[in-house]
Amino acid sequence: MAASSFMGSSSRLRVGLLPSVTPRLGRRALAARASADGGGGPVRVRFAPSPTGNLHVGGARTALFNYLFARSRGGKFVLRVEDTDLERSTKKSEEAVLSDLSWLGLDWDEGPDIGGDFGPYRQSERNALYKEHAQKLMESGAVYRCFCSSEELEKMKVTANQMKIPPVYMGKWATASDAEVQQELEKGTPYTYRFRVPKEGSLKINDLIRGEVSWNLNTLGDFVIMRSNGQPVYNFCVTVDDATMRISHVIRAEEHLPNTLRQALIYKALGFAMPLFAHVSLILAPDKSKLSKRHGATSVGQYKEMGYLPQAMVNYLALLGWGDGTENEFFTIDDLVEKFTINRVNKSGAVFDATKLKWMNGQHLRSLPSDLLIKDFEDRWRSTGILLESESGFAKEAAELLKEGIDLITDADAALCKLLSYPLHDTLSSDEAKSVVEDKLSEVASGLIAAYDSGELGQALAEGHDGWKKWVKSFGKTHKRKGKSLFMPLRVLLTGKLHGPAMDSTVILVHKAGTSGAVAPHSGFVSIAERFKILKEVDWESLQKQQESPVESAVPAAS
Questions:
Q1: Is residue 11 part of a domain?
Q2: Which member of 293, 356, 434, 482 is catalytic?
Q3: Which CATH number characterizes residue 325's domain?
Q4: Which H/E stretch holds residue 278?
Q5: Containing structural domain, residue 115
Q6: Whether residue 237 is found in the same domain as residue 354
Q7: Is residue 36 part of a domain?
Q8: Where is the secretion signal located (predicted)?
Q9: Is pLDDT of 358 > 80?
Q10: Cα 505 to the chain's mean position, in Å?
């Protein structure tokens, strides 16, 4: 069955073992079936992080796919904490993971913080349940006590390696007599619970993403489900949890695919119905290796601190292995719920492109309602101490002017400081400005200084855009300039730059910054008055000579 047939109501998942099984399990084919909608019951999916570190972007994508599948099918999204690694699991890490999921907007229906009908939702609180089901397996003969020491197990690995066969269990305890077992129990010898695996046959599943996947059972060997200290092993915990929580679909990373073999055997031995499986591809680094810390930021928390929006993260993560079949790449979470289907998830690895994520963040940033966007910019500038007041409307005008060039809210600081700066010295000395300087820039500068000294320019700026338009028109007519020959010299002389946002809005904003006291000195702000002081000190004759034969600067630097 192809993964794409999942949406059909008559499609079936089959997990089967060939008839050759151990006597205690019965000499018949082991099979488990579930319909594509979870056996006709409600859709229930789960995300089960281990609280041993931060929420990785790969884990966040897995959580997102589970969330989207549940919401698109009217099902339940369950959060379960797999904290059986007692040495590495921490409460702080658990809280961070839950916080990151909440930040992404992936609200869960059942979990450790809100409870539910199938709790507890932490594995560390479910030990009694694991022991109960381990005892059932013991009573049925599906597992046995294994008293092998670590030294004995190591010898088996060496022997298997010499024989060039898989390192399977070759100890005697699978066939030991009751008397031998009792003797070890009386001596107090530590033991594990080991699952009996059929020596022949194979197992097949129809993965909803990867299609048919099969394993030969003779490569597995009897495996441990309970350690000698009484702690259950991961695969046993997961199977009991998914079964007793009535999980209908297990959507998880492909690195868990090999675990499916052990889990399928446990499902059958306990008489549980199998869920459907969907194994999502890994997220890769640009060099096609597995994404790791050496490639830069990899956790959701890091991207949050860097200024990324949750809606942008959700949008980008969804596109790592999924698409709706169109060229569209911009989705809100509601769009994703409406369009998501598991059969459109690609089984190939998806490359994490930080540049594209930043671009996408810019798209979402600029799609915010205007008042919210302005508030975000204003809050950012206040928090970094650049903005001192907001009554004048300076922050609103600055946000509107700068938003097109900003992809991250944290970039707003540098963008505003750049806007307020006046690097006239560097600009006039650059090769790019040579043609502007040679176009009689000194004459335009003289006229501009005259307009400033007379108060004419200051009055125009005080009147805003209408006053600026009238003044520019008059200035261009006086100096017989228009278009680029007028606006490029004015941009250089008034902003100190060759490029930037709209010149009229920039100059008016600089004027407002000076009259309102809206920005802090450490922002690098150079007022209109200070700009003209610098402009008046330019030695145009020396500048001309410098460009003809560069030796030293002729323009005093802005203080």
A1: no
A2: 293
A3: 3.40.50.620
A4: strand 276-280
A5: 44-121+284-362
A6: no
A7: no
A8: none
A9: yes
A10: 36
Strand 283-284 versus strand 31-35 pairing type = unpaired
Report helix, strand or coil for 171: coil
- Strand partners of residue 110: 78
Which CA distances in Å does 226 have to 144, 193, 449?
A: 10, 5, 86
How far apart CA 206 and CA 3 sit, in angstroms, is 7
pLDDT tens-digit readout, 198-242: 988 999 999 999 999 999 998 888 999 999 999 999 999 999 999
Domain boundary among 218, 249, 280: 280
Distances from the Cα of 540 to the Cαs of 244, 429, 446, in angstroms? 83, 11, 11
What angle (nearest 5°) sits at the alpha carbon of residue 340, between those of residues 47 and 273? 50
Same domain? 374 vs 406: yes
Core vs surface per residue 268-281: b (16+ CB within 10 A) or e: bbbebebbbbbbbb
pLDDT at 559: 40
Same domain flag for 115 and 134: no
Q: How many domains does the chain have?
A: 3
Whether residue 403 is found in the same domain as residue 434:
yes
473 counts as catalytic: no
Is it the case that residue 27 has pLDDT exceeding 70? no
Classify 289 in phi/psi space as left (phi over 0), alpha (psi -120 to 50) or beta.
beta
Contact 292/285 with Cβ under 8 angstroms? yes
Do 461 and 499 lie in a common domain?
yes
pLDDT bucket at 325, cuts 50 / 70 / 90? very high
Stretch among 161-170, 226-235, 393-402 having the lowest mean pLDDT: 161-170
Q: Which residue has the tokens 């479910």?
A: 126
**Of 374, 425, 424, 380, the residue nearest 403 (C-alpha):** 374
SS3 sequence of 425-492: HHHHHCHHHHHHHHCCHHHHHHHHHHHHHCCHHHHHHHCCHHHHHHHHHHHHHHCCCCCHHHHHHHHH
Percentage of the chain modeled with pLDDT above 70: 90
The answer to whether residues 234 and 337 belong to one domain is: no
15 within some domain: no
In a domain, 5, yes or no: no
Distance CA 273, CA 266 (A): 11
Domain boundary among 362, 390, 416: 362
- Is the pLDDT assigned to residue 26 strictly greater than 70? no
Residues 395 and 485 in one domain: yes
Structure-block tokens of residue 481: 């300039």
Does position 468 have pLDDT exceeding 70, yes or no?
Answer: yes
pTM of model > 0.70: yes
Residues in CB range of 365: below 8 A, 6 or more apart: 309, 312, 373, 376, 403, 406, 407, 408, 409
Q: What is the pLDDT of residue 190?
A: 96
**Are 465 and 348 members of one domain?**
no
Count other Cβ atoms within 10 Å, centred on residue 533.
14
